[in-house]
Specification:
The protein is mostly helical. It has a single domain, classed as Up-down Bundle (Four Helix Bundle (Hemerythrin (Met), subunit A)). It contains 6 helices and no strands. The protein is elongated. The relative contact order is 0.12. Bound molecules: heme C. Heme C binds next to helix 2, helix 5 and helix 6.
Length: 146
């Protein structure tokens, strides 16, 4: 059978593609992408909570924050997935503290939701959430922008 030149072209193309992938793709790319998207979503929800004009809006967004922070786990932060991201390796060296920071963000959001639904004033808690929830994890566990 005559060899088809297009087959060589195809094989060369496939080789080039895998070559390029091997260079740019790491084993944790998917997880890193997913958690960075999760964080972006969280940023949007936190903003929406701050901008909410009534207690129901505050409570609904606080619920969403609690739900989102439950996704900070071994799946979105698999062991050793620091390279190519701003996650510090300290996350896995001090996993209990990292997990506690995520839990803290959930608990604070739940407290906001409960208070908002009870008709209590949540202004200070909502305003402080960025510092109390986000900052207390970013400070120890997120590397500065490179
Ligand atoms: C339990 C720890 C933790 C908490 C709590 C947390 N973050 Fe993060 N956040 C991180 C880590 C770690 C990164 C870096 C992730 C990476 O680069 O892969 C990050 C990254 C981000 C990013 C950048 C995402 C991107 O585009 O790369 C944003 C935005 C963000 N966080 C917003 C927030 C906000 C807003 C809150 C609070 C409402 C919050 N985070 C709470 C750990 C946390």
């Amino acid at each position: 059978m005559r060899r088809q030149p297009w087959l060589y072209a195809l094989a060369a193309g496939a080789f080039l593609m895998t070559g390029a992938n091997a260079f740019s793709a790491g084993p944790f790319d998917k997880a890193i992408e997913a958690r960075q998207q999760l964080m972006k979503d969280i940023g949007g929800i936190n903003k929406a909570m701050r901008q909410a004009t009534d207690a129901a809006g505050v409570a609904a967004n606080a619920d969403k924050l609690a739900e989102a922070f439950a996704k900070v786990n071994e799946e979105t932060f698999p062991k050793g997935s620091a390279e190519g991201s701003r996650a510090k390796t300290d996350i896995w060296e001090k996993w209990d503290e990292f997990a506690a920071a995520a839990k803290n963000a959930v608990t604070l959001a739940q407290a906001i939701a409960t208070k908002a639904r009870a008709g209590e004033d949540t202004a200070e808690l909502v305003k402080g959430y960025g510092k109390s929830a986000c900052g207390s994890c970013h400070r120890p566990f997120r590397a500065p922008k490179s």
